[in-house]
Design a protein that fits this description.
The protein has 136 residues and is an alpha/beta fold. 38% of the residues lie in helices and 20% in strands. The chain contains four helices and seven strands; from the N terminus they run ββαβαβαβαββ. The two termini are 21 Å apart.
């Protein structure tokens, strides 16, 4: 279901959507490897959507912001839509204070809203049954 993470960042496949996340420990070199690995997965697996959960990201710098913008642009050229989900208020404030705009990057409040924007929804389960995510 997921590839062996060369960067330590798992990339999961749910149908035609890839789901991944960013952590603070990702240095510049690892961020470049992550981008390369993600682009390769989009191309080889024909993913039409990517959700990047950044809810565990406590700080952001200009390099990570630029990486997210370039990743989004490249993914779009490969036919995939990218949504960055879970941005914490301090991260948003830092971006604004640094004058950094994530031009072309779609955002969602959380991963669930991001997946919904990519066409996923969670169906209600009858009482006593396990819930399953299903495509619309």
């Amino acid at each position: 279901m997921s590839s062996p993470p060369a960067t330590g960042v798992p990339i999961l496949r749910l149908g035609d959507v890839l789901v991944t996340g960013l952590l603070n420990e990702l240095d510049d070199e690892a961020a470049l490897r992550f981008t390369s690995e993600l682009m390769e997965r989009i191309a080889t697996e024909g993913a039409r959507g990517v959700l990047i959960d950044i809810s565990r990201l406590e700080i952001i710098d200009s390099f990570v912001a630029r990486t997210l913008m370039e990743l989004t642009t490249t993914a779009r050229l490969l036919g995939a839509r990218v949504i960055v989900a879970g941005m914490r208020p301090p991260v948003a404030i830092t971006l604004a204070e640094l004058g950094l705009q994530l031009t072309g990057v779609e955002t969602a409040l959380n991963a669930e809203q991001g997946m919904a924007a990519l066409g996923w929804h969670q169906s209600p389960a009858p009482p006593g049954e396990v819930r399953h995510d299903r495509r619309r």
